[in-house]
Design a protein that fits this description.
Layout: H1 2-15, H2 19-32, H3 42-85, H4 91-136, H5 141-144
Helix pairs in contact: 1-2, 3-4
Length: 147
Amino acid sequence: MRMVVFKIIVYICNVKALYPAMLLMLLTAGACGNGPRHEGGNALLKHIDSLTAAAEAAIPAADAELQRATAQYDSAQRAADAHLEALCATEGEMERLAALRIHRDSMQNAFDTQCARVRYLKRKRAQAAQRQADNGKGKSLRQEHTY
């Protein structure tokens, strides 16, 4: 709650060009421990959650594009195979097939990367939650690592 009030005051000071008042407020809030750097331990978890939600929201679009590219390539592949058997395939048709294959592979790469990003963020969130729970028990970050 204090953070919301703090941000509102900063916004009002910026709009009204009250820079001396804002500077005084920032110095006072920082000295009292109520500034933005004392927001709490959940900020990292919230940030990771928002990144995960954005990455998960991008997966259906990547999947749809991959399905479309795969369907285009398969259709062109069938046509090219038929023309190759009839010995009437053209160079342009083969170049188009190669371009579609490159596009399909690129979309597969983008989809796999997006899925890997979600897995990575979920793993990092679990690690951050565990680290936060361990720090709450008095375990320091230095104790986590063996030097």
